[in-house]
Design brief:
Radius of gyration: 17 Å
Shape: globular
Number of domains: 1
Helix content: 25-40%
Strand order of the largest sheet: 1-2-6-3-7-8-9-10
Low-confidence stretches: 1-19
Number of helices: 9
Number of strands: 10
CATH superfamily: Alpha/Beta hydrolase fold, catalytic domain
CATH topology: Rossmann fold
Largest sheet: 8 strands, mixed
Order of helices and strands: HHEEEEEHEHEHEHHEHEH
Strand content: 15-25%
């Protein structure tokens, strides 16, 4: 297994828990359970052809528009040379962004193999195949499930970090997403691996290859000014692939790849009610 994204996640882990012990999967599950402990939220597993995705949903959907938050890559690496056995995130930032969103019609979707004991899981799905066709198909099926169960007409997809790639690729495969939002999103994976001089994501799709399908979608992208994991250059490379850039907005915010993003996103939400 190649050392994909070792640079990124080694930095994140050092900042999050220093030299301490990595929280167990059960402890990481409890973090999500605490976030989901709200009378208006319900947690469940959405089963798809390839994976079972952990979800949290607030279903007050009178306007039939649902905001769906997609988690980042999670605990993919333990050290710069050792893949994790379980990618469940230590800090489920997309779930935290969903929690502060005042919308009554919203959902959170974890990534494959996070918070689940899926028999189809293996390490390639949080390394080189993290954005594979079967992963994206799982999200399109999960969105179909949410759409049918909650009588949804359209979606806004919000993706954090690698979840931004999933959100963009899922949008490219559908005709019911009216707004794509990313927060520190990995939108050109080829540019990202070039910047960090790491192995290509063989078996994965690259959002920047689907710009022709995304040109008609309104997009807003939040980029941390101090983000060295997914720097602004990744977004610029993605944006440059569009012939028509009129529907693409971006904001540079005072944040790193995970620090201060919640505060900046809360400010952002006041602008997109």
């Amino acid at each position: 297994m190649s050392h994909i994204a070792s640079f990124s996640f080694a930095i994140i882990l050092l900042l999050l828990w220093g030299c301490g012990t990595v929280p167990t999967p059960q402890e990481r599950q409890e973090t999500l359970n605490t976030l989901a402990a709200d009378e208006n939220l319900s947690a469940s597993i959405i089963h798809t052809t390839h994976f079972s995705l952990s979800s949290i949903v607030s279903s007050q959907c009178e306007n039939k528009v649902m905001r769906v938050y997609i988690e980042g890559d999670g605990l993919s690496w333990i050290t710069s040379s050792r893949l994790s056995d379980n990618p469940t995130p230590i800090n489920p930032l997309a779930a935290k962004l969903m929690k502060i969103d005042p919308s009554g019609c919203k959902a959170y979707l974890a990534r494959p193999c996070q918070y689940t004991n899926d028999t189809q899981c293996n390490q390639e799905y949080w390394s080189n195949r993290r954005f594979s066709p079967e992963v994206i198909e799982s999200y399109t099926q999960a969105l179909d499930t949410l759409k049918k169960h909650y009588d949804i007409n359209t979606f806004t997809l919000i993706g954090y970090s690698g979840g931004g790639a999933v959100a963009a690729l899922s949008t490219a495969m559908r005709n019911d997403v009216t707004l794509l939002i990313t927060v520190a999103g990995n939108l050109d994976t080829d540019k990202w691996v070039q910047i960090h001089d790491i192995a290509t994501l063989s078996g994965s799709l690259n959002p920047a290859d689907f710009t022709s399908r995304l040109e008609h979608i309104s997009q807003i992208h939040l980029i941390g000014k101090q983000d060295t994991v997914i720097p602004k250059e990744v977004f610029i490379s993605y944006r440059n692939r569009f012939k028509n850039k009129e529907l693409i907005q971006y904001y540079e915010v005072n944040a790193t790849h995970h620090d201060r993003l919640e505060k900046e996103y809360q400010i952002f939400l006041t602008k997109v009610k």
